[in-house]
Backbone:
């Protein structure tokens, strides 16, 4: 089982930027999908972005396209989510998650597609 630890959350004004990190330990990734999800008390956990570890191919939900970018550092076994032009609606606890193996390339994923989860990091965007 892989362990995931997210860091990089915090408070930022609307229009600002944050970079989240998701560091993995326990085993090296190969062809897994690493997903980013977010959740608020009013909304169920929702898909934000995903990156396929071996190819670097990325997928984004429409609400963040053009503002968020996911990348990975193979040497550090770490995935990043660069979030630019943040909006108050982006306020949530952000989670990274890893699939057990390769996932389909439909571009949209559900929490059930992923087997390992980090503890989450709070992102707060103020007006």
Residues:
């Amino acid at each position: 089982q892989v362990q995931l630890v997210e860091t990089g959350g915090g408070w930022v004004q609307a229009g600002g930027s944050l970079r989240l990190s998701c560091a993995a330990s326990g085993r090296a990734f190969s062809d897994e999908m690493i997903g980013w999800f977010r959740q608020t008390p009013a909304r169920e956990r929702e898909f934000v972005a995903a990156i396929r570890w071996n190819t670097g191919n990325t997928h984004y939900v429409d609400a963040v396209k053009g503002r968020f970018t996911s990348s990975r550092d193979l040497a550090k076994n770490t995935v990043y989510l660069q979030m630019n032009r943040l909006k108050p609606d982006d306020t949530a606890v952000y989670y990274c998650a890893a699939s057990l193996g390769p996932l389909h390339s439909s571009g949209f994923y559900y929490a059930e597609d992923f087997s390992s989860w980090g503890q989450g990091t709070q992102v707060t965007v103020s007006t």
In short: The mean pLDDT is 95. The chain has no helices and eleven strands. The longest strand covers residues 43-52.
